[in-house]
User: Which sequence fits this backbone?
């Protein structure tokens, strides 16, 4: 039965990307997935819950892609965090249909809340070394604040008054890494032009490997 849940999410993701969240209906998801309406409602209460599931599973996908890409390299936890986060900014910057979907995703306070709950566990893993003795309850509100920051920068791009991409990236990483108590030398390294150049090149390769046939540059 979990295969049904996954299939519905995969089909829904394609529809969200190809025609937008607001234009996608449960009826379309039913038709495209070949799954009966009753089966869909067994796993999901509504379209927003499907959207939420695709958002959280995408986060896991990005983390797995980054781990696989750098499997033979020695990178810091802060760099891993930055690479995973960079994917969202990169997709919103260069793929118009992703920008629409990411904007709609972060407009939902419910989805943002659940993304933060999920991401806080990873942030505890990535930044626990800089916060000895701190637990999930310490990282959750900070993660929620950073998800709100992502939304602000995505909204700036979406609404047509874009702060330059590199400025958004550097500003976000400065705020986020400081929020998670990374040392100044780590922040300086991640926000350096050389590191941003490398991240953009690496993430470009990773994104091209996702299978983004429905994306539009």
Assistant:
């Amino acid at each position: 039965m979990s295969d049904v849940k996954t299939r519905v999410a995969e089909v829904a993701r394609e529809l969200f990307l190809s025609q937008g969240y607001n234009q996608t209906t449960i009826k379309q998801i039913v038709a495209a997935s070949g799954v009966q309406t009753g089966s869909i409602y067994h796993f999901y209460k509504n379209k927003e819950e499907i959207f939420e599931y695709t958002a959280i599973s995408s986060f896991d996908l990005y983390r797995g892609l980054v781990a696989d890409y750098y499997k033979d390299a020695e990178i810091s936890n802060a760099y891993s965090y930055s690479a995973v986060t960079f994917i969202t900014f990169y997709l919103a910057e260069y793929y118009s249909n992703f920008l629409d979907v990411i904007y709609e995703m972060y407009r939902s306070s419910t989805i943002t809340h659940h993304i933060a709950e999920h991401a806080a566990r990873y942030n505890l893993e990535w930044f626990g070394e800089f916060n000895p003795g701190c637990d999930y309850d310490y990282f959750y509100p900070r993660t929620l604040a950073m998800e709100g920051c992502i939304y602000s920068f995505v909204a700036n791009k979406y609404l047509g008054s874009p702060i330059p991409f590199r400025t958004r990236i550097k500003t976000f990483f400065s705020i986020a890494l400081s929020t998670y108590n990374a040392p100044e030398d780590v922040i300086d390294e991640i926000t350096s032009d050389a590191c941003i150049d490398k991240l953009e090149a690496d993430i470009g390769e990773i994104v091209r490997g996702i299978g983004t046939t429905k994306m539009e540059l």
Observations:
- The chain has eleven helices and no strands.
- The longest helix spans residues 47-69.
- Residues 93 and 199 are 14 Å apart (CA to CA).
- The radius of gyration is 18 Å.
